[in-house]
Structures are given as C-alpha cells and as structure tokens.
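This week, work through this protein record:
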Amino acid sequence: MAPAPTNPHTPDDDPETYVGLDVATAERQARERGWTTVRSLPPDAVITMEYLSGRLNFTVEDGAVARCWKG
C-alpha cells in the first residue's frame, strides 16, 4: 500500500502584503517565504475552486498584483 500523501505546508504569510508589488518581485518573495506553488492570473480568469495547501494566487493587472489569496 502506498503512503498517504502529505499536504504541503501553508506559510504564515499575509496575502495583502503582495498587493501593489510588481509580479516578478511578488513571485520571488512568495517562493522565498515558502510557497510551493505561485499562480499569476489575468483579471476574470476562469479557474477551478479546489483548495491547494501551499499555493498562492495573484490576479495581475498592468504588471502588478491587484489581488492575492491562499489556496
């Protein structure tokens, strides 16, 4: 029997601190702070709503983070 998968750790990080940063800086900081997956999305992107521990999502407008949320 295969071992049960473990969920990645979700960093204790406030997503609001990324709003206003340029995308490259925000992605770099997120990875440095321990996020295993960083996803940048255009405004109104259609995405699935499953929660993934360790993932940080950015909505990007004009090269800057407009919104950020966990999962």
